[in-house]
From TrEMBL:
It comes from Halosolutus amylolyticus. It comes from the Archaea. This is Uncharacterized protein.
Length: 90
């Protein structure tokens, strides 16, 4: 078995997105992690629906505007959502 340990990434912010729980006692989100053989094999992150928008904001804070737009458009496309639709009437 190796002595691999988690450390801060050495690459640029555009290659990583950082997420922090600001108030663990408040239960902003919940993480289940499965560790097997000393390695993380599975991570399940659950976010309260009311906090989802702020969570996405947190993710996108680490990347520039073009990368943020690319992430949002890719996610919307996978869900069949058209981000270019005028939502002024809602």
């Amino acid at each position: 078995m190796t002595n691999d340990a988690f450390t801060a990434p050495e690459t640029t912010a555009d290659e990583w997105i950082d997420v922090r729980m600001t108030d663990p006692e408040h239960g902003e989100w919940d993480v289940d992690v499965v560790v097997a053989g000393g390695r993380v094999e599975y991570v399940d992150l659950r976010i309260k629906p009311a906090l989802c928008g702020r969570f996405v904001d947190c993710l996108l804070d680490d990347v520039d505007k073009d990368r943020a737009a690319s992430i949002l458009h890719a996610a919307a496309s996978r869900r069949g959502v058209d981000l270019d639709v005028d939502r002024a009437g809602e």
